[in-house]
Amino acid sequence: AQSVSQHNHHVILSEAASLELGCNYSYGGTVNLFWYVQYPGQHLQLLLKYFSGDPLVKGIKGFEAEFIKSKFSFNLRKPSVQWSDTAEYFCAVTLNNNNDMRFGAGTRLTVKP
Amino acid sequence: EPEVTQTPSHQVTQMGQEVILRCVPISNHLYFYWYRQILGQKVEFLVSFYNNEISEKSEIFDDQFSVERPDGSNFTLKIRSTKLEDSAMYFCASSEGQGSLGAWETQYFGPGTRLLVL
């Protein structure tokens, strides 16, 4: 079945550790890829997005993601996390000419001070 | 920076009652969406709306649900006869465009309405 998979349900890191959150999708064809973040008590906010061009995408707050088409992956990275990065992170996909945004289950990140 | 707003933030209702969830999309956006997230589960697409009609809907969006843009600013989701399993966080989103237009299709989300059906 077509889906978006986030491999890690809960990740716990210490401040300054490096972060990589996995995201794989199983849709064929051209996709648009997104990472959203939801800080505690707040709404979904766009971190970064990929539509075309350079597969390494830089987003806000020092986050980046790399689209690897051959692996159907769009992993989120940050070289050094901060306590304020504690949040839930959602990978999402839309297909071209399609409004239906499919979300992964989310990864909860806890950063210990 | 313009934002999507939603009211109410919380709603408690009795099973079988009708509820209307309200959203004000970003003003120059043309596409509007509703999603829901049942506690502990994925965010799920419900419906998208463009040019005063539904453009796509998921299998969740059955006859109990309807959407409307009653005026130039509001976008509403109505659940006609709520069921216990309708308890969820409901998110509204909007985008300038859709699909192959690329950057236009980035969806911006509201803060959500938490619906509890008793």
Structure characterization notes:
The complex is a heterodimer of chains A (113) and B (118). Chain A is mainly β and 113 residues long. Chain A has strands at residues 4-5, 10-14, 19-21, 24-25, 31-38, 45-50, 56-58, 64-68, 73-78, 87-95, 102-103, 107-112. In chain A, strands 2, 5, 6, 10, 11 and 12 form a six-stranded mixed sheet that branches. In chain A, β5 (31-38) and β6 (45-50) form a beta hairpin. Chain B is 0% helix and 48% strand. In chain B, a hairpin with a 6-residue loop joins β7 (65-68) and β8 (75-79). Chain B is globular. In chain B, 34% of the residues are buried. The model of chain B has no long low-confidence stretch (mean pLDDT 90). The A-B interface holds A 32, 34, 36, 42-46, 49, 51-52, 90, 92, 94-106 and B 31, 33, 35, 41-45, 48, 50, 55-56, 58, 91, 93, 95, 98-100, 102-103, 105-112.
In short:
Chain A has no helices and twelve strands. With 113 residues, chain A is an all-beta fold. In chain A, a hairpin with a 5-residue loop joins β7 (56-58) and β8 (64-68).
Structural category of chain A is mainly beta
Q: How many angstroms separate the termini of chain A?
A: 40 Å
Beta-strand percentage of chain B? over 45%
Biggest β-sheet description of chain B: 7 strands, mixed
- Unreliable parts of chain B: none
SSE topology sketch:
The complex is a heterodimer of chains A (113) and B (118).
Chain A (H helix, E strand, L loop, with lengths): L3 E2 L4 E5 L4 E3 L2 E2 L5 E8 L6 E6 L5 E3 L5 E5 L4 E6 L8 E9 L6 E2 L3 E6 L1
Parallel strand pairs in A: 2-12
Antiparallel strand pairs in A: 1-4, 3-9, 5-6, 5-10, 7-8, 8-9, 10-11, 10-12
Chain B lengths: L4 E3 L2 E4 L5 E6 L6 E7 L5 E8 L2 E5 L7 E4 L6 E5 L8 E8 L12 E2 L3 E5 L1
Parallel strand pairs in B: 2-11
Antiparallel strand pairs in B: 1-3, 3-8, 4-5, 4-9, 5-6, 7-8, 9-10, 9-11
